[in-house]
Design brief:
With 256 residues, the chain is of the alpha/beta class. The chain contains eleven helices and nine strands. Helices cover 49% and strands 15% of the residues. It has a six-stranded mixed β-sheet with strand order 1-2-3-4-6-9, sandwiched between helices. Strands 5-7-8 form a three-stranded mixed β-sheet.
Length: 256
């Protein structure tokens, strides 16, 4: 249900339920959390790509599993596990790129939103259709989407359940890069490859600043930034970066 492959310092995590359009169920969530735990301290992994097998990135949460629930408590536990796994991805110290093709709906789009960057093929659809089922996104969709899109557009998507296409998502800034049909994974791996060239400690620190800073007042956030970069100043990677700049060569960062 989740295939993990290591390619040139990139861990490619592929949702592998093509017969179910990569619907995300409890087993997939557990495998995702385990995969993140496995590669967290692997020095051979510098970035992640999250993709889907078959003709779509993901149709969303597994409705078959959800229909089997007999109480709100079961649904609450399921959504809790989903939310926790996506939070692990969002807060993961290594950068992540979603490779979206076909469509990313509901919990599938929420998975892509938890990634740092998104690549989507032209013609792909992105949406949160839960409203049409009488519910709402429950794994971060109502909170992450308005932070990545103009609020009015996010509100329309959430309250109508209607998707937008990849081209519009790119123009609005939800998608970082567009790929031609069939090219999302290659484009995502290329983008992730550029991320692997960065200093790991600085990337992890940058992710923390970006994630936590908006919840602080500006003065506190800038102080947090100042303390963070001061710590980075004493790292070997900072010294290597300066040497590489002077010698006009790419830095060889070791995460130390």
């Amino acid at each position: 249900m989740l295939r993990v492959e290591l390619r040139d310092r990139i861990a490619v995590l592929t949702l592998d339920r093509p017969e179910r359009l990569n619907a995300v169920g409890s087993e997939t969530v557990d495998l995702l959390a385990q995969a993140l735990d496995d590669v967290r301290d692997d020095d051979d992994v510098r970035a992640l790509v999250v993709a889907g097998a078959g003709r779509a990135f993901s149709a969303g949460a597994d409705l078959g599993e959800i229909e089997s629930f007999t109480s709100p408590g079961q649904f609450r536990a399921f959504v809790g596990r989903l939310t926790e796994a996506y939070a692990l991805l969002e807060e993961f110290p290594k950068p992540s790129v979603a490779a979206v093709h076909g469509f990313a709906f509901g919990g599938g789009l929420e998975l892509a939103l938890a990634c740092d960057l998104r690549v989507a093929e032209r013609g792909a659809k992105l949406g949160l259709p839960e409203m049409k089922l009488g519910v709402l996104p429950g794994a971060g969709g109502t909170q992450r989407l308005p932070r990545l899109l103009p609020p009015a557009i996010a509100r329309q998507m959430i309250l109508t359940g209607e998707p937008i296409d990849a081209e519009r998502a790119w123009r609005l800034g939800l998608v970082n890069e567009l790929a031609e049909p069939g090219g999302a994974l290659a484009a995502a791996e290329k983008l992730a490859g550029a991320l692997t060239a960065g200093a790991p400690l600085a990337i992890a620190a940058g992710k923390r600043l970006i994630h936590h800073g908006p919840g602080m007042d500006l003065e506190t956030a800038i102080a947090y930034e100042r303390e963070t970069v001061t710590v980075l100043f004493s790292t070997e990677d900072r010294a290597e970066g300066l040497r590489a700049f002077r010698e006009r060569r790419p830095g060889e960062f070791r995460g130390a």
